[in-house]
Amino acid sequence: MRIVRLANFVTASSGGLRTALRELGAGYERAGNEAVLIHPGERYTETREEQGLVITLPGPEVPRMGGYRMLLDRRRVADTVRGLRPDRLEVSDRTSLRWVGRWARRHGVPSTMVSHESLDGLLRLFGGSNARWVADRLNARSAADFDRIVATTGWAAAEFERIGVRDVARVPLGVDLELFSPERRDPRLRHRWAAPGDALLVHCGRLSPEKRPSLSLDALAALRSHGVPAVLVVAGGGPLRPTLQAEAAERRLPVRFLGHLRGRAELATLLASADVALAPGPVETFGLAALEALAAGTPVVANAAGALPEVLGGAGLSALDGPSFGLAARILLERPGRRAVARARARQFPWSASVDGFLAAMGADRAGASPRT
User: Fold this and answer.
1) Pick from 186, 350, 194: which is nearest to 265 by CA?
2) Which of 82, 159, 165, 320 has the largest count of CB atoms under 10 Å?
3) Domain-located, residue 17
4) Within its chain, how far is the Cα of 259 from the centroid?
5) How far apart are CA 243 and CA 234, in angstroms?
6) Which residue has the higher pLDDT, 264 or 351?
7) Which helix (H) or strand (E) holds 272?
8) Are 201 and 330 within one domain?
9) What is the model's pLDDT at position 250?
10) What DSSP character marks residue 276?
């Protein structure tokens, strides 16, 4: 079976989405399918990777978005997809690629849309008083355009189920349990940023408004105000980095900004070496970086407004503002066995289970033999 996947907003530093696409594609290939990923780039390219064939089509760069590009040439996208003769289409974009579902239906190709972000949540953050009405209308159109919606958590599914969409597949993402491991804990790395006896906090994620990274600075300030010697390492780039750096300097907070870590092993070592990870984004539909922290044996404080409490289970705590983030971090720092609990929770999310779930949602299986319906 040939599974053609389309996504926007994929760059070398696009974090969770890029990881999910890579791991799922590789899983589809191992299951006996042929996976093709199409995403925007500076120019046309074709490369063969573990996740299958990867095609970039020229797409304009979105201003002030850190290098993200979009597939806007519908004719070229449609011609490329048609030439690939897909058996299934999987789309990872809630807005600008919604038209692909209608194209697939006209051409008799079963289609799936993966809800990697909460349209309802994003519009409530930035969209004004009628945000929910707008989100409901757009979500209803998405559900009508695609044969199946896949949500990675119950929280992500809720915005569709609220408007009567019944057949939403819930399939959690996964984590590389070999790469992200407590065994990567490195005392030398800790000493680079934290003095003996200091608590090392880590924030991994894009520094953009919807991620609310300033809450991590507030959490650090709250901890220190209660006499807890703590430092914060921030891994990730984005438009808010200069503002956050200036804020940290003004408040005299010990924060180290690393930018985007290109090496996955470097990220895994950082997460394993931290004491607590902070995930302040209020509209996360899953939170892959937080799950990677758990796999590395590091408990997480997450925003109570999003999906992460569902993912963390008993391996972390949730909060809504800076002082409560700081309090939750203090509780985790004092909790015995916290690293073993975190690792045990992550073990419940292998990528193999995610691959099986996504294949089942699109009407395939690990034999890769399901014909076009």
Assistant:
1) 186
2) 159
3) yes
4) 17
5) 13
6) 351
7) helix 264-273
8) yes
9) 97
10) E
Q: Which amino acid is at 60?
A: P
Kindly report the number of other CB atoms within 10 A of residue 84's CB atom. Answer: 16
Return the half-sphere exposure (C-beta side, CA atoms, 13 A cut-off) of residue 341: 14
Task: Provide the CA 266 distance to its chain's centre, in angstroms.
Answer: 18
In degrees and rounded to multiples of 5, residue 195 shows phi and psi of -75, 160
Calpha distance 180→302 (Å, rounded): 19
Q: Are 293 and 233 in contact (CB under 8 A)?
A: no
**What is the pLDDT, as a whole number, of residue 373?**
37
Strand partners, 278: 203, 301
Closest CA relative to residue 233, chosen from 252, 249, 212, 217: 217
How far is residue 148's CA from residue 372's CA, in Å, rounded to a whole number? 15
In a domain, 368, yes or no: no
**Relative orientation angle of helices 119-126 and 154-161, to the nearest 10 degrees:** 80
pLDDT digit string, tens, across residues 152-208? 999 999 999 999 998 899 999 999 999 999 999 999 999 999 999 999 999 999 899
Give the pLDDT band of residue 319 (cuts 50, 70, 90): very high
Is 306 in a helix, a strand, or coil?
coil
Residue whose token pair is 């690629």: 97
Average per-residue pLDDT for the chain = 92
**Is the same domain home to 108 and 142?**
yes
Q: What residue numbers bound the domain in which 6 lies? A: 2-174+350-361
Question: How far is 58 from 76, CA to CA, in rounded Å?
Answer: 9
pLDDT digits (tens, 9 = 90+) for 198-236: 999 999 998 999 899 999 999 999 999 999 999 999 999
